[in-house]
Amino acid sequence: MTMSVVAASMERRVIVSAALAHAMTHTLELTFAALLVPIGIEYGADVAVLGAVANAGTITYGVTALPSGWLVDRYGPRAVMIGAMSMAATFACIVAVSPSLLLLTVALTLLGAGIGLYHPAGTSMVATVAERRGVALAAHGVAGNLGVALAPIAAVAIAIAFDWRAAYLAFAAGALAVGLVVWRIAPTRNDARAAVGARVRRLMASAHARPRTAPPAARRWIAPALLLIYGAAVLQGFIYRGSLTFLTLHLRAHLDVHIFGWNPEAVAGAAATAVLLTAIFGQVAGGTLSDRVPVERAVLPFIALSVPLLALIGPATGVPLLIACAGFVLVNFAQQPIFNGLITDYSPPGAVGRAFGISFFLTFGMGSFAASFAGMIANRWGTPAVFYALAVVAFTMLVAMLLVAAGAERRRGARAREPHSAEAVAGG
User: Fold this and answer.
1) Radius of gyration (Cα) for the chain, nearest Å?
2) Quick one: CA torsion of 365, 368, 373, 379, rounded to 10 degrees?
3) Could you tell me the sign of the dihedral formed by the alpha carbons of 54, 57, 60, 65, in that order?
4) Which residues, at least 6 apart from 8, have a Cβ–Cβ distance to it below 8 Å?
5) Three-state SS string across 200-258, please?
6) Exposure pattern of 298-319 as b/e (b: 16+ CB <10 Å)?
């Protein structure tokens, strides 16, 4: 078996196992929100109480990204992914049999902690092992998008056919099945290290080797380039959460499109769903471009386009509003695989798991503040002002990444005048 065949097989195993686990993670993340009404009726809880219960799970979902990163660097991503799916299956079952709202809250908190372990593990495995990293990260992101899109439909359908507890039991079985798949096909820590080493040797032996990125020779936690990338990635997540929180409300008030006699709320909901589907094309576009041009350059056109698109969403109505929203979702999600690649290459050696742990912790943490930030603006000046403000945030992102790209170009020029080092060729 040739090295190329081995590499292709490894890449498929990585993508399949990570994609399934990613989809399962987001499915369980959104199940409670989809089943809010029947759960509230059974326990006699109002919306405010249910919101507090939901927050318990979302907090741990973000917080456990930090220890997950340490665990990934210590034990490898495969072990952490199996642990995440095992915890998800266990605590989803406990949610399903919870006799009281208090036990339900505890179970949801632990469920959030379990699935919160996933992102640093799965993303680092894809980013470090896959040969075609951009495409692999895009496939991983698309799987997450599908989990987000299908979770409400599947959960509600099961609840209607049986009850809400059956939905959690079904998803617990799904998490267990995914964990078994990961255990069976995901590469072990030693296999992953061997694959990365083999790729580096092939690149070193190739006369046409092209480093994906140009990180500083000394990759440190306090390196300005890494701090700028972190800051931009957090702002990207902030924009995502802030915009999507008020997207449906904004469409309801300003879309002014009439279809089949539907009421404005139904039209807005359908339009928001259609718009969010463009995220799939964004993931593919960003991942594909990052495999073809230096990654620091790949992110720039998508950020640059997000600025006018966000600004246009504010005043637009009708079809132009739909086009602007779809365009924004596309360019926003296109940035995700690119930022994941940058964090991989700019993180300190041997610390990719911790780098992603910090990234997801900050992103999810800032995301929670984005909803409040956007809510205050919308309350005072209306939903159009939310998108104007987010356009300013996107412009700040663009400035940060222009600085990163400029530094990379200087280093790339300097390295072009000397033989590639192993570290430079291994970038990504």
Assistant:
1) 22
2) -170
3) negative
4) 131
5) HHHHHHCCCCCCCCCCCCCCCCCCHHHHHHHHHHHHHHHHHHHHHHHHHHHHHHHCCCC
6) bbbebbbbbbebbbbbbebeee
Task: Give the residue among 149, 145, 147, 152 at the shortest CA–CA distance from 336.
Answer: 145
Q: Which of 294, 234, 299 is nearest to 427 (CA)?
A: 294
Q: Spell out the residues 6+ positions from residue 383 whose beta carbon is closer than 8 angstroms to its own.
A: 246, 249, 250, 253, 254
Half-sphere exposure of 356 (CA within 13 A, CB side): 31
Q: Which residues contact 124 (CB under 8 A, 6 or more apart)?
A: 72, 77, 344, 352, 353, 355, 356
Residue 337 has pLDDT above 90, yes or no: yes
How is residue 426 written in tokens? 């291994």
**Joined tokens for residue 139:** 């496939």
CATH number assigned to the domain covering 214-425: 1.20.1250.20
Local structure of residue 162 (DSSP, 8 states): S
Do 32 and 51 meet the contact criterion of CB atoms below 8 Å apart?
no
Find out if CATH 1.20.1250.20 is the number for domain 3-201: yes
CB 254 within 8 A of CB 267: no
pLDDT digits (tens, 9 = 90+) for 13-65: 899 999 999 999 999 988 888 888 888 888 988 877 887 888 777 788 888 99
Spatial CA neighbour of 175 closest among 104, 91, 116, 117: 91
Tokens 């799939």 correspond to 280
Q: How many residues does the chain have?
A: 428
What's the rounded mean pLDDT across residues 155-167? 91
What sign for the dihedral angle of Cα 340, 341, 342, 344? Answer: positive
Among 411, 404, 68, CA closest to 225:
404
- Close Cβ partners of 381 (under 8 Å, ≥ 6 residues apart): none
pLDDT averaged over every residue in the chain: 85
Residue 48: burial class (beta carbons within 10 Å; 0-12, 13-18, 19+): exposed
Say whether 214-425 and 3-201 share the same fold. Answer: yes
pTM recorded for the entire structure: 0.83
DSSP category for residue 117: T
Asked if 264 contacts 252 with a C-beta cutoff of 8 angstroms, the reply is yes
- Torsion on CA atoms 325, 331, 333, 338, rounded to nearest 10: -170
**What percentage of the chain has pLDDT greater than the value 70?**
87
Domain definitions of the chain by residue range: 3-201, 214-425
